[in-house]
Amino acid sequence: MSLHISCKNRTLLVKVAGEIDLVTAPDFRESIDNAMKEMMGINLLVDMSQVSFIDSSGVAVILGRFRRIQDQGGLMILYGMNANTKRILDLSGILSFIPFSTTEAEAWHIIKKKSVKEA
């Protein structure tokens, strides 16, 4: 698994490539948590387009990051999932409450709509 992490307008952008599984999930969690602290991110956008596999450990890390972001008043959005990844996340039930979109542009639109509602 590889990660590319950046921050824009207090929104952390995480591009994930490879497998999120029992072996890589702890690094995924730690990298996101550290970046959220260092970059003072409020929201989290996760590009899942290059994820080739995700297991229950990966699902648990995504759920944990969602709860943490939600607790601080932010929004987490998953986007770009391939059919297999989307199916696993859908079967886990988390796509019923974690927002997701097809593209990064759609994810930003969701963030902007949230910001307008709060203003």
CATH architecture group name: 2-Layer Sandwich
Radius of gyration: 13 Å
| Tally of domains | 1
Would you tell me the structural class of the helices and strands?
A: alpha/beta
Proportion of strand residues: 25-35%
How many β-strand runs? 5
Helices and strands, in order, run as EEHEHEHEH
Task: Give the integer mean of the pLDDT values.
Answer: 94
Multimerization status:
single chain
In CATH, the homologous superfamily goes by the name STAS domain
How many helices? Answer: 4
The share of residues in helices is 40-55%
Q: What's the overall geometry?
A: globular
- What is the CATH third-level topology name? Transcription Regulator spoIIAA
Strand order of the biggest β-sheet: 1-2-3-4-5
Q: Which keywords apply here?
A:
alpha/beta; 5 strands; 29% strand; 119 residues; Transcription Regulator spoIIAA; 4 helices; single chain
Topology at a glance:
Layout: E1 2-8, E2 11-20, H1 25-38, E3 43-54, H2 56-71, E4 76-79, H3 83-92, E5 100-101, H4 104-118
Parallel strand pairs: 2-3, 3-4, 4-5
Antiparallel strand pairs: 1-2
Textual characterization of the structure:
The protein is an alpha/beta fold and 119 residues long. It has a single domain, classed as 2-Layer Sandwich (Transcription Regulator spoIIAA). It is built from four helices and five strands; from the N terminus they run E-E-H-E-H-E-H-E-H. The protein has a five-stranded mixed beta sheet, sandwiched between helices. Strand 4, helix 3 and strand 5 (100-101) form a beta-alpha-beta unit. Helix 1 (25-38) packs parallel to helix 2. The termini are far apart. The mean pLDDT is 94.
